[in-house]
């Protein structure tokens, strides 16, 4: 076919303004167009030049269901891929996975807010725990901040891998992957996404996670004794039941939504010698019973929860003060309880039931962390009256 390359030349309108003339030939048909903008003229030139080159493609005679125009289109696609090392099939597969024209191009921030609203309603119905909702909210707000002004379709599995892999904790990787997996499944259900990119992200097995995590951080018996000695005199002992229940009964200590914020005095049976942690209080939504150890009994008798609230006013501020003074990490009191109880009893199953963790978790993170001698010292930490130590039998 007769064709001539497309060119852009300048000319002047009668008014004296500069213009741009595009001219060329496709399949013997001459094309001439005028433009006031240079950018528009050259953009149109690129379009027509691609059409002209496609029209000159010499097709091989091969068995195919494609018509002539489709063969030309395929050839043009191969030209675009030249030098990338990617095949046409790979390019089309990627396009179909990440560009769904039949789907709504939903901004990620709006989609996340819609998902959090659903989870919030589940929390209000009691089908989702408050702490699980809070953790979900915190994680997904971080996600929105990381992918500011992005649509769902703009985010690939590689992007999400970079996001959740920003630290080396494998358990954290698995947790973040789980949050995002549920989020993207919601997007699919709402027709905002066509595939779940987290399917391509690795889930680390238990052995890999445990090798990476190591044993839990704990207080020594001496450090725990200093903590309780200070708490007993701090603001007239107002924080004693709160700290003692976390340290000597393993009540989960998060002061925003943790078990310690929901435990009530009626859950503590001094006569029966047990603390009933109902499902509505438990982090894992399963009830459990915790033995009241003799030293905990002494603390609760000296500072009874009916007169010393488990969650006193200004608890958050006082906890922050204690955490700074004694370097109390998020769950260090609970970790101390688990390791000390296991060292005392040697019974993984018993500790598992009282802590509300699986036997695997207890064995992997608390076994052989403390000696029997240190455990005996820990379980003998008692309140004092003046300079006199109150005995367990008192």
What would you say this structure looks like, in words?
The structure is a single chain. The longest helix has 20 residues, at 170-189. The protein is mainly alpha-helical and 394 residues long. The protein has helices spanning 38-55, 68-81, 88-98, 108-125, 130-146, 157-164, 170-189, 206-213, 221-233, 240-249, 294-302, 315-326, 332-345, 348-355, 359-366, 372-378; strands at 4-12, 18-26, 29-35, 268-269, 274-277, 288-291, 384-385, 388-389. α9 packs parallel to α16 (372-378) and α10 packs across α13. It is 49% helix and 10% strand.
Q: Which structural category do the helix and sheet elements fall into?
A: mainly alpha
N/C terminus separation: 108 Å
Rg for CA atoms: 34 Å
Task: Give the overall form.
Answer: elongated
Arithmetic mean of pLDDT: 85
Biggest sheet overview: 3 strands, antiparallel
Major β-sheet strand ordering: 1-2-3
Secondary structure: helix percent: 40-55%
Which stretches are low in confidence, meaning pLDDT under 50 for 5 or more residues running?
Answer: 387-394
What is the ordering of alpha helices and beta strands?
EEEHHHHHHHHHHEEEHHHHHHEE
Give the strand tally.
Answer: 8
Tally of helical runs? 16
Query: What percentage of amino acids are in beta strands?
Result: 5-15%
Question: Secondary structure elements and their pairing?
Answer:
Elements: E1 4-12, E2 18-26, E3 29-35, H1 38-55, H2 68-81, H3 88-98, H4 108-125, H5 130-146, H6 157-164, H7 170-189, H8 206-213, H9 221-233, H10 240-249, E4 268-269, E5 274-277, E6 288-291, H11 294-302, H12 315-326, H13 332-345, H14 348-355, H15 359-366, H16 372-378, E7 384-385, E8 388-389
Antiparallel strand pairs: 1-2, 2-3, 4-5, 5-6, 7-8
Helix pairs in contact: 4-5, 9-10, 9-16, 10-11, 10-13, 13-14, 13-16, 14-15
